[in-house]
Specification:
The structure holds 3 protein chains of 3 kinds.
Chain A lengths: L2 E11 L4 E10 L2 E2 L10 E4 L4 E4 L1 E6 L12 H11 L1 E6 L10 H14 L3 E6 L13 H7 L3 E3 L8 H13 L4 E3 L4 H4 L4 E2 L2 H6 L3 E2 L2 H17 L3 E3 L5 H12 L4 E5 L1 H5 L21 H12 L5 E2 L8 H4 L13 H15 L5 H7 L2 H7 L14 E11 L18 E11 L2 E5 L1
Parallel strand pairs in A: 1-4, 1-5, 6-7, 7-8, 8-9, 9-10, 10-13, 11-12, 13-14, 14-15
Antiparallel strand pairs in A: 1-2, 2-3, 5-16, 16-17, 17-18
Helix pairs in contact in A: 1-12, 2-3, 4-7, 7-8, 8-10
Chain B lengths: L13 E4 L1 H18 L6 E5 L3 H17 L4 E4 L31 E9 L3 H11 L6 E9 L11 E5 L8 E4 L1 H4 L4 E4 L3
Parallel strand pairs in B: 2-3, 2-4, 4-5, 5-6
Antiparallel strand pairs in B: 1-8, 7-8
Chain C lengths: L29 H15 L16 E6 L5 H12 L3 E6 L11 H10 L4 E6 L4 H8 L3 E7 L5 H15 L6 E5 L6 H12 L3 E5 L15 E3 L2 H4 L5 E4 L15 H8 L3 H5 L6 E3 L12 H4 L6 H22 L6
Helix pairs in contact in C: 1-5, 1-11, 2-11, 3-4, 5-6, 5-11
The chains are: A alpha/beta, B alpha/beta, C alpha/beta.
């Protein structure tokens, strides 16, 4: 019998409304209902630590198949473990795209062999993520995708999006949408505002995101299919989602760390490590986003982990690809900013936004420390002070704007199925 | 009434020429120039910035005082023509040069405060070459302190001052430095 | 009574220029701007000499790296380099290996390996000169980067204004046209504000958005109201190319509402200056005769551009020198 005893930690298990100091036993890869008296335990002293259900990041780019120079399933999984995540949901904008069941199966089998954390897959809404024809959603559902998304792109044809939502409803698959109106956004590479004016870079107006958030709200209400707005970055988007949820629309939103940690002023040096999509916006948007997290409008947190090779990012600003890695800085930033600095939410709520909420949206059998559940556990030291060092990243890529940042709060041990896959 | 003693520019510097001595030297130089160049319409006294400009002005004024004709005065910027820019701690400030329109038939008398290595003078002659070809170039300096690095000599000298290469020579003019006219030298 | 106690005089030449690169006007202090203008005034005289050459940059290599093409600006930099006795090499996007997929960074590092001392870069990507200046020991001079800045154009604009009107501080300058996409407008705005001028932007609201007021300037869409008040009117070239089609309907409509016609020119103050960075579209942003009139300093701008570029090359090359041991 394989037994692990986590002693004396603060168990925060929002799914079971639990927040207390106690011991937790893991036997043969599952949470034990009670502490067995006859077992030989490996004991881990968790005093001063938070014992949480394994964290889930539902917005991660693992880059396989086809872009393994940036990241592989194996390295991405190690990065997740180092960040305290036991489950990741990977995006389909690979080469080829995940738009048919064989690619889904390929990824799942590779993850089974090589990934130290749980990897869940998503399928594209449209063939080749071209936004023109529906992908074989039913077959992909059968192959095990947990959601549909054209992430990286956004279906512009509203009629097509409506039909996709109706079809997806049959398979009870939620749709994750990267909200971007191509005509309004045009060639924009940064938030349209004072800084884009000064720097002479084409702007990406908030309206370019909000127009599609609104489209999604209306279609979600029309079709009854849940839509989850990825990486909400603007105050207007938060407001629209708040109003929609108040009337019961099946809409949700997620926030990424960079959109609450940075503003468009960071682009002053044209450093491509600050180039993301959607872009960093203004102070008012950051405040609105944090407010939306505090009042529950934004219910899920994620990283949008987007690795790129150094040479790809080290080019002229408007030619650089969008995106930054995020798995290994995500938890630290969220704890440091949301819990310690802004006091917007408490630890239990933070953990809920990274466990219960994504698990509920995607109907994953994870995110709780219920007896008999998979023993995916994250041990967190909410007061550990540490410095971000890209050189120490497990990820293959190091495109981060947070190099050198001093953060308070970090995962110190990641346990998947009862086995420690990473420890600080 | 004699002027009060001026402030030394450096703690241990000693005064070599006071206001009166400088005045006499520049008057003598003016006489020497007229002696050698009786046709004052054919000369131009060209100051090398920055203090050479003041020397040129004073020589021209002196000539005007006793000949009642003021010769042309010009400025020649040498900072664009120096050959030792790499070795200097500061990039020198450039000023606009100004010479008479046609220098072909003229005698240009370069004026500077101190003649040392001779490189400033060489740069000045180089600069003049891009304006044209004067009939003759002469050199007037207030102080010749020796240690030439090029085969250049002054035609008119206010005072010969033996120095060691490391010693600093300071020239002050009332109109430029807001301190009485004086020449100082560092203690050896 | 003895003179006031005074420290030893500072060395005669102690300029404030320590930058090996000129990437943006926005980085410069008013003192640095003034130093460039004063230096340019000195270099202007060189072009009036019989032999238009000084040896300041002798032995130095300047590379005109024009990824975005330009004949006028490139020629101006080329001549400035020749007047300073530098050796010049011209590279464009097609003649460089950028067309073969080499990155900008690798192309520039290759140039540096050939000991290029100064790289003059014009590029359609904003931030490209900054990018290179951070990675190379060579001096990098921004000859225009996307819609961001065109520093030497702004310098020659304020030089021309100062030369003609004796000052920049306190003057009211109007910039007319496609402001949104204009690097000239941005550099001009920064230079004029730093030197104490008042700036009003004029153009259709799609091309002269109110957003610019946050920079400290006024924005108006009514050219007729502003012309009698300004000391300088700077007209920007307007084009109705593909990328601008959504911003205004036609050149005809633009001219009718924003062009400097003969009637409008008459409403200017008698000694107001008319400027244009060139090339001019006669009959569009400016009436043909007005472009050639006495108040137009368009050709002075070209002459001054040469002096300004000589000053910039001299100062930046000087700051990039290895320091004496």
């Amino acid at each position: 019998m394989n037994a692990l005893l986590l002693r004396n930690g603060r168990i925060i298990d929002p799914a079971n409304r639990r927040d207390e100091t106690a011991d937790l036993a893991i036997v043969d890869g599952r949470i034990a209902p009670a502490i067995p008296t006859d077992a030989q335990f490996e004991e881990i002293d968790c005093s001063g630590l938070v014992v949480a259900p394994g964290l889930i990041d539902l917005h991660v780019h693992l880059r396989e198949p086809g872009q393994s120079a940036k990241e592989t399933i194996a390295t991405g999984a190690r990065a997740a473990a180092a960040g305290g995540f036991t489950s990741v949901v990977c995006m389909p904008n690979t080469s080829p795209a995940v738009d048919n069941p064989s690619v889904v199966t390929w990824i799942r089998e590779k993850a089974e062999r090589e990934a130290c954390v749980n990897v869940f897959t998503t399928g594209a809404i449209t063939k080749s993520i071209a936004g023109e024809e529906l992908a074989p959603i039913g077959s992909m559902a059968r192959a095990g995708v947990v959601a549909l998304t054209d992430d990286g792109h956004c279906v512009q044809n509203h009629e097509l999006m409506r039909r996709a939502l109706e079809y997806a409803r049959m398979f009870q698959l939620p749709v994750l949408d990267h909200c971007q109106d191509y005509s309004l956004v045009g060639k924009g590479v940064m938030h349209e505002g004072y800084w884009s004016t000064v720097l002479g870079l084409p702007g990406w107006p908030s309206a370019g995101e909000e127009v599609i958030v609104m489209r999604n709200i209306l279609l979600a209400e029309l079709c009854g299919t849940p839509i989850h707005c990825q990486h909400v970055s603007s105050g207007g988007g938060v407001r629209l989602i708040r109003e929609a949820r108040a009337r019961g629309a099946p809409i949700s939103g997620e926030a990424c760390p960079h959109h609450i940690a940075l503003t468009d002023k960071s682009l002053e040096g044209y450093d491509t490590n600050f180039k993301m999509n959607p872009p960093l916006r203004a102070e008012a948007d950051v405040d609105a986003l944090i407010g939306g997290i505090a009042d529950g409008t934004i219910s899920i947190l994620a990283s949008d982990h987007a690795p790129h090779c150094g040479y790809e990012k080290e080019v002229e600003f408007d030619m650089a690809p969008f995106g930054i890695v995020g798995l290994e800085t995500e938890l630290g930033l969220f704890i440091d900013i949301l819990v310690h600095k802004k006091k917007a939410i408490d630890l239990p709520r933070l953990i809920a936004m990274l466990t219960v909420e994504p698990a509920r949206l995607l109907r994953l059998d994870r995110g709780a420390l219920s007896p008999g559940a998979h023993a995916d556990v994250t041990l967190i030291d909410p007061n550990l002070e540490w410095k971000v060092d890209p050189g120490a990243f497990q990820s293959r890529s190091a495109n981060t704007p947070f190099a050198g940042w001093e953060l308070k709060g970090r995962a110190v041990r990641t346990i998947v199925g009862g086995k420690t896959v990473w420890a600080a | 009434m004699s002027q009060p003693a001026p402030q030394p520019p450096a703690p241990e510097a000693s005064l070599v020429l006071d206001e009166q001595a400088i005045d006499r030297a520049l008057r003598r130089i003016a006489h020497e120039i007229v002696e050698r160049n009786p046709d004052l319409a054919r000369i131009c006294i060209v100051g090398i910035p920055s203090r050479g400009v003041e020397v040129a002005r004073r020589i021209a004024s002196n000539i005007e005082t006793f000949e009642h004709v003021r010769p042309d005065v010009g400025v020649i910027d040498v900072s664009m023509h120096r050959d030792d820019l790499r070795l200097r701690p500061h990039l020198p400030t450039v000023v606009a040069s100004h010479l008479p329109p046609d220098i072909a038939g003229l005698t240009l008398i370069l004026a500077d405060d101190v003649l040392f290595s001779g490189r400033t003078c060489r740069a000045a002659m180089d600069a003049i070459a891009s304006f044209g070809r004067p009939r003759r170039i002469e050199l007037a300096v207030l102080i010749d302190r020796g240690h030439r690095e090029l085969p250049i000599r002054a035609d008119y000298v206010g005072k010969n001052l033996p120095t060691s290469p490391a010693q600093r020579v300071y020239v002050r003019f009332r109109s430029v430095d807001d301190s009485p006219d004086s020449v100082w030298i560092d203690k050896e | 009574m003895s003179a006031k106690p005074k420290a030893a005089s500072p060395p005669l030449a102690a300029p404030a220029w320590t930058r090996k690169d000129l990437v943006a006007i926005r980085d410069l202090s008013p003192e640095e701007l003034t130093l460039v203008l004063d230096t340019a005034a000195a270099f202007k005289e060189v072009s009036a000499r019989e032999i238009k050459k000084v040896p300041s940059l002798r032995g130095k290599t300047l590379v005109n790296f024009f990824v975005e093409p330009s004949t006028r600006t490139r020629t101006s930099f080329e001549l400035a380099a020749f007047r300073l006795s530098a050796d010049v090499v011209n590279i464009s996007a097609t003649t460089s290996s950028l067309s073969k997929g080499e990155t900008l960074k690798d192309t520039a590092r290759n140039l540096e390996a050939l000991h290029a001392d100064i790289i003059v870069l014009r590029h359609s990507s904003a931030g490209a000169p900054l990018f290179l200046s951070q990675r190379l020991d060579s001096s990098v001079i921004n000859a225009g980067d996307g819609a961001h800045e065109h520093p030497t154009q702004a310098l020659l604009d304020v030089f021309t204004i100062r030369e003609r009107l004796g000052r920049v501080a306190g003057l009211h300058v109007a910039i007319v046209g496609d402001i949104l996409f204009s690097r000239v407008a941005r550099s001009d705005i920064f230079a004029l504000l730093k030197l104490g001028a008042k700036v009003t932007l004029v153009g259709p609201s799609t091309l002269a958005p109110r957003e610019f007021e946050k920079l400290g300037v006024r924005v108006t869409h009514d050219i007729d109201s502003i012309l009698p008040e300004v000391d300088v009117v700077n007209l920007l070239r307007i084009q109705h190319e593909r990328q601008r089609r959504e911003y205004f309907p036609s050149l005809g409509e633009y001219t009718s509402f924003f062009g400097l016609t003969r009637e409008r020119a008459e409403r200017l103050k008698p000694d107001a200056l008319i400027m244009h960075p060139g090339p001019i579209n006669r009959g569009v942003e400016i009436d043909s005769e007005i472009a050639d009139s006495a108040r137009s300093v368009i050709l002075d701008q070209v002459t001054n551009g040469l002096a300004v570029r000589m000053a910039v090359l001299y100062l930046c090359a000087g700051a990039a020198r290895p320091k004496p041991s």
